[in-house]
Amino acid sequence: MDFQPDALTVTRTEQVREFLDEHVIPAEPVLAEQIAATPDDWSARPVVRELREKARERGLWNLFLPPGPHGDGLTNLQYAPVAELTGRSPRLAPVAMNCAAPDTGNMELLAHFGTPAQRAEWLDPLLDARIRSAFCMTEPAVASSDATRVETAIRRDGGDYVISGRKWFATGAMDPGCAVFIVMGKTDPGAARHRQQSMVLVPRDTPGVTVVRPMTVFGYDDRDHGGHAEVLFDEVRVPAANLIGGEGEGFAMAQARLGPGRVHHCMRLLGMAERALDLMRDRANERVAFGGLLAEKGVVRTWVAESRVEVEALRLLVLKTAWLMDTAGNKAAMTEIQAIKVAVPRAVQRVADHAIQLFGAAGLSQDTPLAEIFAAARALRLADGPDEVHLAALGKAGLRPKHPEGRQP
Amino acid sequence: MDFQPDALTVTRTEQVREFLDEHVIPAEPVLAEQIAATPDDWSARPVVRELREKARERGLWNLFLPPGPHGDGLTNLQYAPVAELTGRSPRLAPVAMNCAAPDTGNMELLAHFGTPAQRAEWLDPLLDARIRSAFCMTEPAVASSDATRVETAIRRDGGDYVISGRKWFATGAMDPGCAVFIVMGKTDPGAARHRQQSMVLVPRDTPGVTVVRPMTVFGYDDRDHGGHAEVLFDEVRVPAANLIGGEGEGFAMAQARLGPGRVHHCMRLLGMAERALDLMRDRANERVAFGGLLAEKGVVRTWVAESRVEVEALRLLVLKTAWLMDTAGNKAAMTEIQAIKVAVPRAVQRVADHAIQLFGAAGLSQDTPLAEIFAAARALRLADGPDEVHLAALGKAGLRPKHPEGRQP
Amino acid sequence: MDFQPDALTVTRTEQVREFLDEHVIPAEPVLAEQIAATPDDWSARPVVRELREKARERGLWNLFLPPGPHGDGLTNLQYAPVAELTGRSPRLAPVAMNCAAPDTGNMELLAHFGTPAQRAEWLDPLLDARIRSAFCMTEPAVASSDATRVETAIRRDGGDYVISGRKWFATGAMDPGCAVFIVMGKTDPGAARHRQQSMVLVPRDTPGVTVVRPMTVFGYDDRDHGGHAEVLFDEVRVPAANLIGGEGEGFAMAQARLGPGRVHHCMRLLGMAERALDLMRDRANERVAFGGLLAEKGVVRTWVAESRVEVEALRLLVLKTAWLMDTAGNKAAMTEIQAIKVAVPRAVQRVADHAIQLFGAAGLSQDTPLAEIFAAARALRLADGPDEVHLAALGKAGLRPKHPEGRQP
Amino acid sequence: MDFQPDALTVTRTEQVREFLDEHVIPAEPVLAEQIAATPDDWSARPVVRELREKARERGLWNLFLPPGPHGDGLTNLQYAPVAELTGRSPRLAPVAMNCAAPDTGNMELLAHFGTPAQRAEWLDPLLDARIRSAFCMTEPAVASSDATRVETAIRRDGGDYVISGRKWFATGAMDPGCAVFIVMGKTDPGAARHRQQSMVLVPRDTPGVTVVRPMTVFGYDDRDHGGHAEVLFDEVRVPAANLIGGEGEGFAMAQARLGPGRVHHCMRLLGMAERALDLMRDRANERVAFGGLLAEKGVVRTWVAESRVEVEALRLLVLKTAWLMDTAGNKAAMTEIQAIKVAVPRAVQRVADHAIQLFGAAGLSQDTPLAEIFAAARALRLADGPDEVHLAALGKAGLRPKHPEGRQP
């Protein structure tokens, strides 16, 4: 359980920090201007493309992908501080470094389970950021937290699969450059509960695909990042070769995909919390109210103190999770992944709430990233499985009679 | 301390409930469509104007204004359940009944402190909903929670006042129909701390007035309600007759204006909580996850139970506050006003948070009013004075040695 | 819903307050000395007997018993402020005024359901404080929160009942003056779930009764109040005339008994909170730390403010509950009783926690009543039904489809 | 930042666990019986002395003392899991292994700052458990959280010091075997704020020393561990050679003493939380209520899940603190020490609260260690400095402009 950053981590972290300070943070107001200038555009803005070039030059590219046949990125433990740093500028840094969800998860999925043809067609351009991708899992009609309830049908018909169903909150899918959707549905509703689901690749331009509308999250539509779309699949026909993995493997692949995704979200959230704490520090040292600097108020100090303690403790738990994934595998780290998936968004929501309160009206507005950070943390208490699902699983495990290991020091 | 609704309250409540059920709630999707159809418009949409006619026909108009020379509305205690009901459809019901902030507070201000000429010019059209108004108090450059820090200058120059300063979060000011701004500034920075401020009426079209940009609140711009504007006043000249009350009375009038406003916000928030609880109940009885209806899950039941208890207790405290305002005056109710101003938004934020969690992604989206309710409650922990200011005052009062009354049963 | 105290309430409240200030609070250190002087005694100390005489002289006696054939006390609404006042000195005031649990509940039970002979034998001496009584319901072997699980057997045998079972937390039963136990058990384990239980009167000196040991609550044994005993009933034989009500009516009578008891607990808890707040106020105005009075610290003010708001809101909910019991009956007030049963102990625990924190080590010790108040509040989150049972019931009710009344304003 | 237990840690942990399972836990009811049999005795009971022999035989003795001239114990990182294990049986394990507060802190103090003569007279018998010691710092008359306010006078008079003052919560001092008191007082009230204090050794039998009375903590008097005494020093005269360190060094030595003490408390608290979680698990798997095992209830699972997450995250923060103390010194770990001092007691209080709720009345009673664990956690939010002092310091540090290190990953 050694969390000391190794040489590569130190180098990468330093590079990313410099990239952030010199290029990404200063680009935030530029992004805001470009969005304001092209309000109806759902694709990445020019400033993103410029940052991508800079990131690529520095080798800060696809770092999320663990070393292996298709990736030369970082281990989870090495990636943790890098991903955390990208969270400090959540709308720009991850996408600039081609480390943004949902493409990261989709790339991992293709790297692990894709056929050579699938990888050539979709993984390579994704790794190169020439296209983007969406993951279509959540459905408006059912409690998708229970993945066995998914209703979208994937019916075999000769050499094809025919897909029918309605999905929503497909992040990125409003972007016209989002060329492919990975769709989770049921190929065999009669099979065992976790063997009914499969995943297929559906090119955006396939007949029967309708991108219905953008969904908002607390009023944000995230139009610079492709938004979150409702997508209708009406008798959509794709070749059988578009199946990822085998029939009935959809549930297992979703779990495999979601594990690292959840951890990456937690890492970035810690960075968002740090950004909020930095902003609090600066604001508290310049604002005066009721006879003193905000930095001198007992209540403000308590907010900062409690926030710091939560962040410090949870960062260590994230590092332990990453270390465990690297050394024992994602499955062995399941309990830890569930733990941080529940604890980190809650904590970061609290930190952001304090920061908003310190900033007053500005904290609610577009002039700080705080309300967006709050919304991101709040949304992650639902995205990739609501807290209650993870808490129930953790509680069940914790109550298992004679739980022999993992509990004692 | 008799909270039993009298005959008029029962009648009005019944009328409002019927109006809501038959006209307002069904108009919500219509409003959404009209906003989508005219995204660049910041004025009230046709559906609002239609609802206004219907409200007027039913006498559900200006009910917020207590009986007196300029109002024939309801007492605070009578208004409480009416205002709560309007909170159930927060974007439509208050505005339809001409009971929406900030116009309500501005109308009260003019009714109490306006000259006959000011009332003729501004109050009458406001009571008739022919124009709208904004209240310009908060400034980006200072902690406006401490009203003595306001920096906008109101300089006497011959028969005029000349106003210079920057305000923001002027609700409604993006609406071109918002014809007048009430601006708080300092006429005498050398006077005693609470005698430096004054208020002047500034017509929208006065030279030097620039409506700079809309501010967002958690991603919402509230464009159907005139948004929240940043407004620049650059050497804006108005006749001295535009002064409301006397020089140096701005602070006192602001306090007088904010008292009822805070209480109205709390009443409406309770209605928002009830709406959220209704939505939770309906959803929980139709969604199935992990082998059962959500309504049967222990965790969901706990959410609903804790929410109900908070709402029931705080409703009584709101009623007591209203009763105290009616019987002993707004000043005597100051402690209670501060108490509900702190407690109600916090509680409603928790209720909305549970409701969002129950709804999953839909709860975060535009398909339910839940995320907006959450944002409204969160914003009200800052608007009209942040929690910390009220808590400090309440705590100071509660710690006053030998506090002889109001504490013991 | 008129909570205004009537003339009798005003008179009684004033009398009780005077009695408290002049006699009860000054007697607290006397009680401590008398306990220290007779550590092995479990009966009421001399100071209690003296206070009883004083209370009786003033007519402050049995005020808990609503007007009726056997009581000439106060209505619930009238009793609320009186009971709250007694909570300010929880170890002395209730017992001095013969208004202490569990005797109050037992007296109500006998008044409502006892035969004339039972009332003559047990109710009269209880009303006169010549004896005390215990209520034996909770069992160590089963989750007694689910009353249908009670295992004690009450077997009919000719003209007798024979009782076998083990009870604990029988408050008062360590007191040798506790002359009678009301025992809940099953007369017919084959009946419908809520018709299996019955209650019998068991005189303390009946063969087979063993008072096994005192139980502690957070280290407190409450030996001045008869403690909380484990009691073994080993083939205990009593005449069939000792049955209270009819066979199978035990569950219903327990519910009837517990309703008012829960409300009285809440009333007294509010008084404990007020005592804690008074102590906080006094302490904060005399202690200096880190350069200022505690009363001037922002964190302390926040504690006091949040505490006051909670107490004010919950007092109103308690009053509403009492009013509802008086006007619509205990059954109609069930939801409100459950609500305050959950909310009040939690709130008072928080208040006491703040008070302890303000006092430092003294707050944990016998030199203030704060740790005892904390323990009392904490214990009441379990006594008379754990929070979870009430929350589940409240949540279930709140989620009932189309809940037509009680929700809307 | 390598937290992997080394070979010695693994060995010691295994030995301690075995010692606990085979000897300490089974001795808990024996201790209860021995206390009941000798209620007026304040010294260690026979079972403690027997366990000490067993611990000594196994080399599980004085493990708290880091390697150095006077200790051959464990580093902080090695000690962490050992101390945590002792927390599982908090009344027996620490004292059995001569690792109980306050003797540990006093031994460290003497090891670091004592003269050879002081060490020979007091440290050696303490290391051998032949005597016990108390630390007299807190005073009833002042807010001792602010150490500069201590009022006890230590006056130089020729070759002696003369001590006058009143202390309380001197843990262990009721034990007649507690042979020496380390007393903090002011030698120079005119010096700089942190140079006024000094410490002297005062043998128990010195004329003028009066052990006044035992203090309780939530009703517990801890009489098997020497209780918590109020001690009066009335013109107590000791030779000048009894001064520890130099005059004016008392404040600095207190800080040095308290650092490791706070960390040890946190380690043991984690063990208490684990004990509570074990008890919850066992209970939940055997108790049935409302139609199912408690282990199957959603609310119970949530309690366990949230508890586990908190414990796991905070254990890592404790390990980091220990590692930092070992590698960078106690002073460099100050922020982390403050962080865990605040966070761990709060978390363990929450865990114990859940456990009590699960157990019902038994959880409040002497039949489980839960209420004692709760009280211990609650008390540690005050002992060794209240939360507010640490939060203020942490907040101040976190708000320091341009905090260059320790924040970023």
Automatic annotation (TrEMBL), chains A, B, C, D:
Keywords: FAD, Flavoprotein, Oxidoreductase
InterPro entries from the UniProt entry: Acyl-CoA_dehydrogenase (IPR050741), Acyl-CoA_Oxase/DH_mid-dom (IPR006091), Acyl-CoA_Oxase/DH_mid-dom_sf (IPR046373), AcylCo_DH-like_C (IPR036250), AcylCo_DH/oxidase_C (IPR009075), AcylCoA_DH/ox_N (IPR013786), AcylCoA_DH/ox_N_sf (IPR037069), AcylCoA_DH/oxidase_NM_dom_sf (IPR009100)
Gene3D superfamilies in the record: Acyl-CoA dehydrogenase/oxidase, N-terminal domain, Butyryl-CoA Dehydrogenase, subunit A, domain 2, Butyryl-CoA Dehydrogenase, subunit A, domain 3
Residue intervals of the Acyl-CoA dehydrogenase/oxidase N-terminal domain: 14-128
Domain Acyl-CoA dehydrogenase/oxidase C-terminal: residue ranges: 248-397
Cofactor(s), by name: FAD
GO BP, one annotated term: fatty acid beta-oxidation using acyl-CoA dehydrogenase
Record flagged with keyword Flavoprotein: yes
Enzyme class: oxidoreductase
Domain Acyl-CoA oxidase/dehydrogenase middle: 134-235
GO molecular function, one term: flavin adenine dinucleotide binding
Listed GO CC annotations: cytoplasm
Source species, domain of life: Bacteria
EC number: 1.3.8.7
Similarity remark: Belongs to the acyl-CoA dehydrogenase family.
Subunit structure: Homodimer.
Descriptive protein name: Acyl-CoA dehydrogenase
Taxonomic source organism: Phytomonospora endophytica
